[in-house]
Specification:
Structural class: alpha+beta
Low-confidence stretches: none
Oligomer: single chain
Largest sheet: 6 strands, mixed
Radius of gyration: 15 Å
């Protein structure tokens, strides 16, 4: 897959369809906060699966995410937590994406845990559970349809 040759990130209309999932991975010597971004399937007349893939590629490029088959690249300071709410800065100063996160995720991030951001290109139903999400991520990995990187809260 190639990233479309457009430099600006997708606008709020597209980003409104992005779904975020969070969790804390504790298998290492320190916790790693996970943030997975997927997009809902086409639901409006002008939306297509290919359009969603292109938009998610632009979203991943705006975050400076790296290839799925390499180590997660550092992407700068992209997470902010203010008044108990996490926000993802995705490349446009005026826009932020609210991150629905549990208190345990916020605590880990505020304590300095790295945040592993993973963006999948293919749509996933909004009601998907953990098992469906895990299978979706695996399938996207096999196809090379995801990007990832690491950020920290400032």
């Amino acid at each position: 897959m190639t990233v479309p040759d457009v430099q600006s990130p997708p606008g709020p209309g597209f980003v409104a369809g992005i779904r975020l999932a969070t969790g804390v991975h504790r298998a290492y010597a320190f916790p790693v906060a996970q943030l997975i971004a997927t997009h809902a399937p086409p639901r409006l007349e002008h939306e297509t699966v290919e359009g969603i893939r292109d938009g998610m590629q632009l979203f991943a490029a705006a975050l400076d995410l790296g290839p799925h088959n390499g180590p997660p690249v550092p992407i700068g300071h992209r997470i902010r937590i203010r008044r108990g709410t996490a926000w993802l800065h995705y490349g446009v100063d005026e826009w932020r994406l609210g991150v629905p996160a549990s208190r345990s995720w916020l605590d880990a991030v505020e304590a300095g845990a790295p945040v592993r951001v993973l963006v999948t290109f293919d749509p996933l139903a909004a009601g998907a559970g953990q098992e469906e999400m895990a299978e979706h991520v695996r399938a996207c990995y096999v196809r090379g349809a995801l990007r990832w990187g690491t950020t920290y809260h400032v």
